[in-house]
Structure formats: structure tokens, C-alpha cells
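Page 42, continued from yesterday. The earlier attempt failed because a stray header line got pasted into the input along with the sequence. Redoing it now with the clean sequence only.
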Amino acid sequence: MLTLLARDLRLQFRRGELLASSFVMGVLMLLAFNFSLDLSPDNVAALAPGILWVAVLFSAGLAAGHGFVGERENGCMDAIVASPLDRGSVYLAKFIVNLLLLLLFEAMLLPVFGLFFELSVLSVLAPLALVLLLGSIGLAAVGTLFALVTVGGGGRDLALPILLLPLEVPLLIASVKITRVVMAGGGFPWGDGWVRLLLGFDLLFVVAGWLAFEYVATD
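This time it went through. C-alpha cells are written below.
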């Protein structure tokens, strides 16, 4: 697992285009929302969390299908499946790579988000980082599993967003609700129902991906 994880991280950072394209897409979405919506000091705190998570969601969808690009192009997936490596370990390695790339993307996007919407991100950085981490775990877990489901299909680039977006709606709503509380200065709402929903979503899809990966990989 560690060998596969190190290889994937090395390949992703050596190429660099995935992180760059995700960042450019995220900035463009923030820019489009900034100019298209009538934002004022009265409503920016209510609208900005939704804008941030829409940018993260679509950029994560762009990155999700790239986890298996090397295996698809080089025909390595059959070798990985045939190897003695536990299939769940393959999923966890891919999941961790996707999660780290997503968190790095968010760390790059957050200062731009604060600048565009004139929000003090530093004052709520710790609870905001926790929300982003929890939301990113769910996005990476779902994206990693369904990227493998669509890896062999001819219409994979179209099929993947269609599969991902309906599943990610609960995560999106919960993340936006929690982020709104955090950015209002309320701290991280540990006892909130939205937090429980987000934690449950993360646990469900990480465990489901780990258990189902063996059956999906052999189809």
C-alpha cells in the first residue's frame, strides 16, 4: 500500500497539471460568482459558504477521474488486481492521494476566496479547516470508488459526474450549513445534526469503498 501511495503521489506531483487545472477552475468559478451575484456586506456571509463548496465540489469532480489514468493508459489495472496486494489497500492508497490533492487545492484556493469576498479567513481558520477536511474525506471517498466504476467505460468522462453529483448532495448541504456557522464566528458546532450527517457520510463511503473495491475491481 505504501509503495502504491508513494508512486501515485510522485506521479501526480511530477505532472502537476491536475492540481494546476483544478486551481484554475476553482478560481474561475469564484470569479464568476463574484461578478454575477449581487453581493453586499449584508448577504456575503450567507452566500459565500455555498460558493466555496460549489467550487470545491466541481474541482473535486474534475480530479476524481484522474486517480486511475495511469492504470487505464498503461493497462496496469489488471496487474494490480492480479497482484497479492489487498484490494482494500489499493482503494485506501488511491483515496489518500485524492484526499491530499484535494486538501492542497483547498489550501491554495482559500486565500483567493477570502480576497474575492473580503472575508477574514484567518480568524476562523482552525474550524474552517476542520470543515474542509471532513467534507474532503467524503468527496475523495466517493470519487475514488466511482472513478474505478467508470474507468473502463468509453463515456467515463461524462458518466462520472452524473454518478457523483446526486450522491454528493447531502455532503454539499451539510458542509455549507456548517461552514456558514463557522464563518459567522460560532466555532465548530460539534453537537449539530449537520456535523453528524457529515461524519456519517464520510464513514459510510470510506468503509463501503474499502469493502466494495475488491468486487468492483474484478468486474
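Notes: The first helix runs from residue 2 to 15.
Reminder to self: strip header lines before submitting.
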